[in-house]
From TrEMBL:
This is HIT domain-containing protein. It comes from Amycolatopsis panacis. A motif (Histidine triad motif) lies at residues 130-134. Residues 37-145 form the HIT domain. GO terms for molecular function: catalytic activity. It comes from the Bacteria.
Length: 231
């Protein structure tokens, strides 16, 4: 499945705010807003789940974390995927993601992944159409074999190479292993929602607990907020 380039480049011009996007609602109105699920995982002593932020990027713990430390890098504005970011912002996002991985290294060897959407219909397996890159410690588990069973990998050097996906209008999965090696997978067929989370859950012998909405794990979210300190 590919997307016509005119549709891709239309969606690249980020809307500053999408009222139907839970991330947009959270960043504009706060985690306690009824339109954001983040408020359900915060203790009474917290008003947000921010680990780090600036005017363009945000780092927060994932709801339904697969491991302690499971966090995400997100754009403030409403881009569909990191492939659709302007190059200067993509360069900054990569630096932030690398810094986050360094912060997580005390908890284990981090991996990174993204379901890269090109449009609201060509989602690459994403369940939320707002650019978010997962970073999580995952010792001694490599999910690449599971990804390779369904999709064809292509080695890339960095997030910056995702620009090619935008140029081709091709939804994708991005995966970086614990050794810092990166691959991109063209998603040319329908994938189950949260496909990578399912693979991680299977590797952790928690097959039924991949869905963040069903298993939000508030205690693990709060443990991540306590453990991850941005230096």
């Amino acid at each position: 499945m590919t997307v016509d380039n005119s549709e891709v480049f239309d969606s690249c011009a980020a809307s500053a705010y999408d009222k139907d996007c839970t991330f947009c609602v959270e960043f504009k109105h706060g985690a306690r807003h009824p339109g954001s699920p983040a408020g359900t995982v915060l203790g009474a002593d917290r008003e947000d789940r921010l680990i780090w932020q600036d005017d363009e990027l945000v780092v927060v713990p994932s709801i339904g974390p697969m491991t302690k430390g499971h966090s995400m890098v997100l754009t403030r504005e409403h881009y569909l995927s990191f492939a659709q970011l302007p190059l200067p912002l993509l360069e900054r996002a990569e630096k932030v993601a690398k810094t986050l991985c360094q912060q997580l290294s005390s908890l284990g060897s981090p991996i990174m992944f993204e379901h890269g959407a090109m449009s609201e219909s060509a989602t690459g397996g994403a369940c939320t159409d707002h650019a978010h890159l997962h970073c999580l410690p995952l010792e001694d588990i490599d999910i690449k074999e599971q990804l390779d069973e369904r999709l064809t990998p292509r080695r890339i050097d960095s997030l910056l190479d995702l620009v090619e996906q935008r140029e081709r209008g091709q939804p994708y999965i991005y995966y970086r292993n614990q050794q810092g090696e990166s691959w991109v997978y063209d998603v040319t067929t329908d994938l189950p929602c949260q496909f990578v989370r399912r693979a991680i859950s299977s590797s952790l012998n928690a097959d039924s607990e991949w869905d963040w909405l069903v298993h939000p794990r508030p205690q693990l979210v709060r443990a991540t907020l306590d453990a991850v300190r941005w230096n």
